[in-house]
TrEMBL record:
InterPro entries: DHS-like_NAD/FAD-binding_dom, HACL1-like, THDP-binding, Thiamin_PyroP_enz_cen_dom, Thiamin_PyroP_enz_TPP-bd_dom, TPP-bd_CS, TPP_enzyme_TPP-bd. Residues 407-558 form the Thiamine pyrophosphate enzyme TPP-binding domain. Coiled coil: none annotated. It catalyses: an (R)-2-hydroxy-long-chain-fatty acyl-CoA = a long-chain fatty aldehyde + formyl-CoA; a 2-hydroxy-3-methyl fatty acyl-CoA = a 2-methyl-branched fatty aldehyde + formyl-CoA. This is 2-hydroxyacyl-CoA lyase. Keywords: Lyase, Magnesium, Metal-binding, Thiamine pyrophosphate. SUPFAM superfamilies: DHS-like NAD/FAD-binding domain, Thiamin diphosphate-binding fold (THDP-binding).
Length: 575
């Protein structure tokens, strides 16, 4: 290794050694002063550095990579503006309960406060969005700061952390042998799902588990709800076993989709409203009763529903005050629950009134949606291209493609139409409804799950936030097909009533409008990827067949009727 020929290790090498010792594998970012050397040192230590065009997209990639690998990933930025551009990723991780380690270079400690190049109090800037913000003030402090940051990010409720590395620290040196010894102070990170002896606080109390099992056993209309906390814990085998043991119907949150296949006969997704409104006991695993689950309150839920929550974080249980709270890791606690159920088994068969009711409702809803989907509407509405894309994704079989989705109508309708059969194969705007995550998520998914095709279904507005990262897809030759639903703007361009437009700037483009019929596919071609324009079912089918089999970066520009869809998608009441 190159370092063996060095007489001394500088701060860059010390940091890279500490990160490698921790077992961290991927760093996303944008290099520049003072961290270019750090990126190179990480590569020399076997850490993959994935270079982006913009820190915000790099940050979303690091965030999704953390989620998909159940371990913190690294984000590297320059000082000042670079660090500020990383704040959205920290905030996104905080909102979505994902780990992430941001490392930023910062200005020389001796010149701090004097108006140095790209100077900023980065510890203060990152603190509102992090579980831990720490600075190494000397090279010898680097391993301890790395160890503290890693522990804070990964233990308990996962979350984002920040490591501040002043440029003078990066330039300090220690003898190479001493650096090797110092790096050994960092404990290697082992995700819970791979840990043969997990710590006792990750299990729920035996009494709480027995009570939860009894609640489910005696329920008349039980329901299992699971979310991205269960996906992060990799609790899919345990969830599948629970459904198999008990026959209880289940409802995934958007990113929980696939932990148990959407095609499973007990999937209640197509009867969601009925399932929520009428269940009497709801076991909620790794999902918060926030806006996405209507706060667990009427009218969407029955006022008498008894919630049983499994969550890694006791504060979540304290906040929601469920009938029964099981604090612990979803995978481990579900194992405990399955054992308790096996001791006194029960099963809701196909003829159980609750199952019959849900199955009938789901069948009716699916039939109604399928009638809409099967029409070939040209110019395209949302449903026709979504059906064609759904069928192409299903035809891929296993390993199933990862679907990345963002946009208003595109994401809302896509969630109902696109099917997930395998865990962690859906990434979307998440708890915060963050637009602009798409291209970063594509890179993350392709790196974390290299055996899978990645298919991004993006509204044209959402795509625009990070469209330049098409170049990153081409540079790394990733198997990503970006499908842009092009309806000329946010919610479909100018939908204003002409009578409401006045004032000196009335002839400006509408705030919702983009250049009509923009040739997004040629952006991909500009970088050497493959571009397709699709305005008819046949053109779309042929573009999908071609691009899915090529497994190279491609963009399909799907021209939509700009008047299809609605303003704000399904969130109209909030706009
Ligand atoms: P969704 O958006 O899918 O509903 P949320 O992000 O709202 O999911 O909730 C995820 C929940 O999962 C959080 O409350 C978080 O504390 C919890 N969580 C995270 N990791 C684990 C884990 N390993 N085991 C159990 N719960 C977890």
């Amino acid at each position: 290794m190159a370092e063996e020929y060095l007489k001394a290790a500088d701060g860059n090498h010390m940091t890279a050694m500490a990160l490698a010792q921790a077992g961290l594998t991927h760093m996303f970012g944008v290099v520049g002063i003072p961290v270019t050397g750090l990126a190179n040192a990480c590569v020399a230590r076997g850490i993959r550095f994935v270079a982006f065009r913009n820190e915000q997209a790099a940050g979303y990639a690091a965030a999704a990579h953390s989620y998909l690998t159940s371990a913190p990933s690294l984000l590297l930025t320059v000082s000042g503006p670079g660090c500020v551009h990383a704040l959205p990723a920290l905030a996104h991780c905080q909102a979505n309960v994902w780990p992430l380690i941001l490392i930023s270079g910062s200005c020389d400690q001796a010149s701090a406060g004097k108006g140095d190049f790209q100077e900023l109090d980065q510890l203060a800037a990152t603190r509102p969005f992090t579980k831990f913000s720490g600075r190494a003030t000397t090279i010898r402090e680097i391993p301890a700061v790395v160890a503290n940051a890693l522990a804070s990010s990964a233990l308990g409720r996962p979350g984002p952390v920040y490591i501040d590395l002043p440029s003078d620290v990066l330039h300090q040196t220690v003898p190479y042998g001493e650096a090797l010894e110092l790096a050994k102070l960092v404990p290697p990170f082992v995700p819970t799902f791979q840990n043969p002896s997990p710590s006792p606080e990750l299990f729920a109390s035996g009494q709480a588990v027995d009570e939860a099992a009894a609640l489910l056993r005696h329920a008349e209309r039980p329901l299992i709800v699971f979310g991205k906390g269960a996906a992060y814990a990799r609790a899919e085998t345990e969830l599948q076993e629970l459904v198999k043991l008990t026959g209880i119907p289940f409802l995934p949150t958007p990113m929980g989709k696939g932990l148990v296949s959407d095609t499973h006969p007990r999937a209640a997704t197509a009867a969601r409203s009925l399932a929520l409104a009428q269940c009497d006991v709801a076991l909620v695993v790794g999902a918060r009763l926030n806006w996405l689950l209507h706060f667990g309150e009427p009218p969407k839920w029955s006022p008498n529903v008894k919630f049983v929550l499994i969550d890694i974080d006791k504060s979540e249980i304290d906040l929601r005050k469920p009938h029964q709270g099981l604090v612990g890791d979803a995978l481990l606690v579900l194992n405990q629950l399955n054992k308790a159920i096996k001791d006194d088994p029960f099963y809701l068969g196909d003829s159980h009134p609750w199952i019959e009711k849900l199955v009938k409702k789901a069948r009716d809803n699916v039939e109604r949606m399928e009638m809409q989907l099967q029409k070939d509407v040209v110019p395209f509405n949302f449903m026709t291209p979504l059906r064609i894309i759904r069928d192409a994704i299903i035809a891929e079989g296993s390993p199933a493609p990862v679907v990345v989705s963002e946009g208003a109508n595109t994401m809302d309708l896509g969630r109902a139409v696109l099917v997930q059969t395998e865990p962690r194969t859906r990434l979307d705007a998440g708890t915060w409804g963050t637009m602009g995550v798409g291209l970063g998520f594509c890179v993350a998914a392709a790196m974390a799950m290299p055996e899978r095709l990645v298919v991004a279904v993006e509204g044209d507005s959402a795509f625009g936030f990070s469209g330049i990262e098409l170049e990153t897809l081409v540079r790394y030759q990733l198997p990503v097909v970006v499908i842009v639903f092009n309806n000329n703007g946010v919610y479909g361009g100018d939908r204003r009533n002409p009578e409401e437009i006045s004032g000196p700037y009335k002839d400006d483009p509408a705030p919702t409008s983009f250049v009509p019929e923009a040739a997004y596919h040629t952006m991909m071609e500009a970088f050497g990827g493959k571009g397709y324009l699709a305005s008819t079912p046949q053109e779309l089918k042929s573009a999908l067949t071609d691009s899915f089999s090529a497994r190279k970066p491609a963009l399909i520009n799907v021209m939509l009727d700009p008047y299809a869809g609605t303003e704000s998608g399904r969130m109209q009441h909030k706009n």
